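Today's session is about reading a structure prediction critically. Students often jump straight to the picture, but the first step is always the sequence itself: look for stretches that repeat, for charged clusters, for runs of hydrophobic residues. Only then move on to the predicted structure, which in these notes is written as discrete structure tokens rather than atom positions. Here is the chain we will use throughout the hour.
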Amino acid sequence: MQRPRAQPLQIETRLENGSPVCIRTIREEDRELMRVGIEKMSQRSRYLRFFSGARSAPEWVIERLVAADGHDHIAWGALDMAGDDKPAIGAVHAFRDEEDDDCAEFSVAVLDEYHGLGLGKLLTATILLDAREEAITEFEVNILADNAGAKDFTRSLGGRLVDSDRDVLEYVLDVETAIVRLKADCDPPGITEVFKAFA
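Below is the predicted structure for this chain, in token form.
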């Protein structure tokens, strides 16, 4: 059951190219948006996000991604407001650790055609600020070893490598440190609207 939330459920902002986007909390009725969005990702992007290149996500994965309560599972999605059908173009999730209430597993995904426009940062800032409201102080980030972009981004936010095997690296990210770094960077310009929404 969705808990009452003090923070806004929707943020209007823009990408680096000026395109308007709406970042809003994910709801259970977003199943089809989630399914279509995953199918639109390239095989490579699906592999990097889900550790599988399968074109269609199993139904249990879709169910898990849309079952957000705003506390144990925080989830936000981005819609392209310039598109006629306002398609879903990215999503970010934080799943609270059942054994460590202060920690959550973090992941973000952006459709390939929107890479390089700052959407990943906008979504990350949104969920960091929301997580802080929910008393989450640390994110666990699992990244495939060959995902150079995700590794660089996580390290830029203060992520520390804490474990690794041949294929997957585990980073720990301090929520407050990451928020401070994103706010200081002020890039993309649309990130200002995200911080205003949680002020």
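Discussion point for the tutorial: The longest strand covers residues 88-96.
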